[in-house]
Structure formats: structure tokens, C-alpha cells
Write a structure and sequence with these properties.
Blueprint lengths: L6 H4 L3 H18 L64 E7 L5 H8 L8 E9 L1 H18 L9 E10 L7 H4 L5 H19 L4 E7 L3 E3 L4 H6 L5 E12 L4 E6 L5 E2 L2 H9 L19 E2 L17 E3 L6 E5 H5 L14 H11 L4 E11 L3
Parallel strand pairs: 1-2, 1-4, 2-3, 6-12
Antiparallel strand pairs: 4-11, 5-12, 6-7, 6-11, 8-9, 10-12
Subcellular location: Golgi apparatus membrane
Protein name: Alpha-1,6 mannosyltransferas-like protein subunit
GO molecular function: alpha-1,6-mannosyltransferase activity
Length: 377
């Protein structure tokens, strides 16, 4: 008995089937590709942005006037944020790191140390913000010179992207010298300006592919080359190393170290009572000044005896953190934790950030035996 095809199939014109196949292919291509022809960008992918409206953490080159062709339409890109990881093994998971630096004065030692970081540079984006004014201009010129040299150099040394922002305001201080920066009377206005700079830099540069944010001050000139993966290995939402300073002791005729950053601390009943009873709503408490005895436990003095083979991975809980080298999971910032430029529970800038993060249920940690070093002026 002969086998006959169904009536509907026999009546279908072959041309109709071909057209249906073409339309199906076109529909699938439209769904799974962006308007500029590129496919959906994976969270772990780093490549040049196709349009100026793409995430700021991806590099983008403007089309110069006179060039042929038209500006591409803004792409529609899907980011599956559930696939974005922040883990104790960031290299294996290809986690992107955004290193952010407010920069008022350029130190060559800072840049040289940055280049020595062993975290894959193709997974690192850099962001800088510099103030308006003469010193800011000089710092910008020096920074741009090193950026161009690095980004045209060996591929292994190049960073995924570099963003340089210029503020429309000058630094509130007349000088960036260390003595001037740390005068008590300059602290509130200085740290409020720093908070605004940090927030502007953060909100402009953090993109949907960012897993970690490392805040690294421009005068941090020496860190372990494995700084990024060392801090990430603890897998904490906020973690900060101990910041010390190398100096030449003329009395002993040798190089020694001393504490530098006093903003990483555990709170005390004295400080809490002082804030409650004697401070106005806009007053702030700061560490390292005899005029403001808080009796907080400072991480700078939690260092174990060097002769006892101290554990560099030792962790302590903190209520306040410094920003000289501060590692933050990007999701903490995405939750809304920023740097208050105003008195927030009598705290400001990085210490205020730790308090704000704690209010959002993110705990801060410190590494008292793990050191980074500040430039010695």
C-alpha cells in the first residue's frame, strides 16, 4: 500500500517553507543580537564598548568629526546579575575589579606599584578623579603620561579600561602637603570634599560587570603584589589592611615603620557617650587627635609581635574603616552604601561609609597583620 503525505503538507508550497525558515532565522537573530551586530555581553566579558551609553567600566572611543559612517545606535545589552560572583577565588571565576583613586598629587611610586599587581590586568578597570586647579592640572598631566605609556605597552600590563574625571571645583585646602592635610581644623571640610569626590567617582565608573571595588589612595606606594587576591580571599563584604609608613629613624640610624591610618577602629563606650552628650547634630568624631579622646580600639595598634610569627590572615571586626586600601564587594555599594559628606551618626567619609554599610547589614573587617605603606613626605 503506497504511503501518502498528509493533505496539509502536500498542499504547502516549497517556497512557503523556505520563506518560513528565513523568517524564523531572522527572528532568532534579532532576539539574540544587539542593534550593532554584537551578541549579548556576558557578565565576565570585558571588551570595548560599542556606544557611548554602554557601561562606563568598558572603554569607548568617540567617532571623530569627519570620519565616515554614522554613530551607532545605543545597544540593548542584557546583564544577568545573578551570574555575577564575588568569591574567595576571584581569578578562577574571572571576577572584575574596579580600582578607584581620588588623586590630588601624582606619585610615580603609586603607579609603579599598581603595575606590579599580579591580578590579571585584563580584569582590572581603573578610575581616577582629580580636582580643578594648578596642582590638579599637574597631577592630571603626569597621570595621563603614564596611562598612555602603559596602555601602549605590553598587553599583559594594559588595563581593561581607565577613566579619568576632573572635578569642577578646586581642593578646599590651599596645599596638599601632609602637615596641612592633617590639621584638625581642616578635617571636616577636607573629608567632606573627599566624600563627594569618592561618590562621584564610584557612581560614574561602577558598571554591571564589576564584582569588587578596591579603593586605593594615590599616596599608597607599597603593597604586596597579590593585594587584590589576598583581600578577596577572605570573601568579606568590606575588608581593610593595616596602613603603616616607612621612615628613617635618625636616633637609631635605620629605617623603621610606624602607624599611619587611624580610621580603622572598634567603637568604645566613651566615644558613644561623647557623641550622645557633647556633640551637636553636625559635629563629627575623628581619630588620632589629642583634642578628641575617644578611647576606641585602633587596628593600627592591634599588630601581633613580629617575633611570634604573626598570622597575616588574622581578621578583626571593625566599626570604622580607613580608605587608604579598602576592598568592597560591589553589591555593598549597589545596596546604597556610599561615603557621607555630612555627619552620619557623627561620622564622615570612610568611617561614615562603614556605619552606613552596617545599617544595611554589611559588616566591616580588618587585617591587623597585613600591611600596605604610605608615602613618607
Amino acid at each position: 500500500m503506497p504511503i501518502h503525505s498528509s493533505r496539509s503538507l502536500r498542499r504547502t508550497n516549497p517556497i512557503t517553507l523556505i520563506l518560513l525558515a528565513i523568517l524564523t532565522f531572522g527572528f532568532l537573530y534579532f532576539i539574540f543580537s544587539s542593534p550593532d551586530g554584537t551578541t549579548t555581553t556576558p557578565v565576565s566579558g570585558i571588551k570595548q564598548a560599542a556606544n557611548a551609553l554602554s557601561p562606563p567600566s568598558l572603554p569607548f572611543k568617540k567617532v571623530k568629526k569627519g570620519q565616515e559612517g554614522q554613530q551607532l545606535a545605543p545597544p540593548v545589552v542584557h546583564y544577568h546579575m545573578n551570574n555575577l560572583t564575588t568569591s574567595s577565588n576571584p581569578i578562577a571565576n574571572q571576577e572584575t575589579v574596579l580600582i578607584l583613586t581620588p588623586l590630588a598629587r601624582f606619585y610615580q611610586e603609586y603607579w609603579d606599584n599598581l603595575l606590579k599587581l599580579t591580578y590579571p590586568h585584563e580584569l582590572i578597570s581603573l578610575g581616577f578623579i582629580l580636582p580643578k586647579g594648578k596642582e590638579g592640572n599637574a597631577a592630571t598631566a603626569a597621570l595621563q603620561e603614564q596611562v598612555q605609556k602603559t596602555q601602549k605597552g605590553p598587553l599583559k600590563k594594559r588595563f581593561a579600561s581607565i577613566t579619568i574625571l576632573r572635578q569642577d571645583t578646586e581642593s578646599p585646602l590651599s596645599s596638599q602637603d601632609e602637615h596641612e592635610r592633617h590639621k584638625l581644623e581642616n578635617q571636616k571640610i577636607r573629608r567632606a570634599a573627599m566624600s563627594k569626590a569618592r561618590n562621584s567617582l564610584l557612581f560614574t565608573t561602577m558598571g554591571p560587570t564589576t564584582s569588587w571595588v578596591l579603593w586605593l589612595d594615590s599616596d599608597i606606594t607599597e603593597t604586596p603584589p597579590s593585594l587584590v587576591q589576598d583581600l578577596a580571599s577572605h570573601n568579606k563584604p568590606i575588608i581593610v589592611p593595616n596602613c603603616y609608613q616607612r621612615y628613617f629613624n635618625k636616633d637609631n640610624n635605620k629605617w623603621e615603620t610606624r602607624p599611619y591610618d587611624y580610621n580603622s577602629w572598634q567603637d568604645s563606650p566613651t566615644a558613644q557617650q561623647l557623641a550622645k552628650d557633647k556633640l551637636g547634630p553636625d559635629d563629627i568624631l575623628m581619630e588620632g587627635y589629642a583634642e578628641l579622646p575617644t578611647y576606641r580600639s585602633l587596628m593600627a595598634y592591634m599588630v601581633d609581635d613580629p617575633q611570634s610569627n604573626p598570622d597575616v590572615g588574622k581578621e578583626v571586626l571593625l566599626d570604622g574603616v580607613g580608605g587608604t586600601a579598602l576592598m568592597v564587594k560591589a553589591e555593598v555599594h549597589r545596596d546604597g552604601a556610599m561615603f557621607p559628606p555630612f555627619a552620619f551618626y557623627h561620622l564622615i567619609e570612610t568611617e561614615g561609609f562603614a556605619k552606613m554599610a552596617k545599617r544595611l547589614d554589611w559588616q566591616s573587617y580588618g587585617l591587623p597583620n597585613y600591611f600596605v605603606y604610605h608615602y613618607n613626605e
